[in-house]
Amino acid sequence: MMLYDSMRHFLSPADLTSDERAQILARAKVLKADQSAPERSALRVGALYFNPSLRTRVSFEQAVWRLGGNCQTLNTGSDTWQLEMDPDAIMDGDKVENIVEAAGVLGRYFHLLGVRSFPGSQPWEIERTEPVLQAFARHTGVPIISLEGTMHHPCQSLADHLTLTEKFGDDLRGLPVTLSWAYHPNPLPMAVPNSFALQAALAGCDLTLACPPGYELDDEVMAQIDRESKANGGNFRVNHDRLDGAKGAKVVYVKSWGRKDLWSDKAAERESRQPLRHWQFNDEAWEQTDSAKVMHCLPVRRNVVIAASILDSDRSIVLDEAENRLWAQAALIEHFAKMQGVLA
Length: 344
Ligand code: CP
Description:
By secondary structure, the protein is of the alpha/beta class. It folds into 2 domains: about 1-150 and about 320-340, Aspartate/ornithine carbamoyltransferase (Rossmann fold, 3-Layer(aba) Sandwich); about 155-315, Rossmann fold (3-Layer(aba) Sandwich). Helices cover about 40% and strands about 15% of the residues. It has 12 helices and 13 strands. The strands form 4 sheets. Strands 11-10-9-12-13 form a 5-stranded parallel β-sheet. Strands 4-3-7-8 form a 4-stranded parallel β-sheet, with helices on both faces. Strands 1-2 form a two-stranded antiparallel sheet. The longest helix is centred in the last third of the chain and has 22 residues, at about 320-340. The protein is globular and about 55 Å long. The mean pLDDT is about 95. Phosphoric acid mono(formamide)ester (CP) binds near residues 53, 56 and 148.
């Protein structure tokens, strides 16, 4: 649990206890089944974006609406002043407002604040310290919900967990799941694969990471996945073969991400991945699986990352995942709002 002065935040799938996760998933199913109009509540939620979004923005606002509250979305820079992220900066440049005051002010308006901030192009060892989300957690004074940071996208993985329970039942221990890297022209963030793999480990899945050499996840997250897999009755292994890594899987989560050692040199990274264009999840790869359901967080590049023949078939459950962002987040926000004493 991420804590500053006893304040709880949701920055990683591991920031919920297993009991809380079970309660939130059960509540998400109730909310999903309940089509009644919400009663108005006092809940005020903010959502601050440093990067674009379709699913997160819409589902987060709709989740708060489902709880009878109000959600205000802000895009930094266009809806706000340009923020200086260094509390100790001498602000004689073009930045108008410091994170310290901006976060403190938003904490006076909202009971909870969601923040999205993707990594920049500093070396991975710097980016992985998550300076933006950590600064908001330190200075806002209310719980921060990650809407995707450098290390994790915990709202996505909570929705993915909900989706898996709908397809395979609440007990996912031993479920053969492959997280499969895919080619994409650009080096993408690592938050979704880190979170999906950790969430699968927390659920006790039999997890395979299929990726080319050099594309392993964050080192500390890999160690955490290994620990949590063992603790929860699962397994974790790495397979560097695209087809063998999919063998026997009931679930394949397809995603592209950048390699850690070339994080600060995007041109070199793009060059190094050119021989990996065949890492597309297509019918040939699917044939290796045990009639797997295919997952992706979206947005996805058709016929680059996943073949359209898969996306357009009932093998794909990507729309279920996207819908479940709404219900998982509604249950999560309700849980935090109850802890804040805003909802009964
Ligand atoms: N999966 C996801 O977070 O989508 P957006 O980037 O559109 O929010």
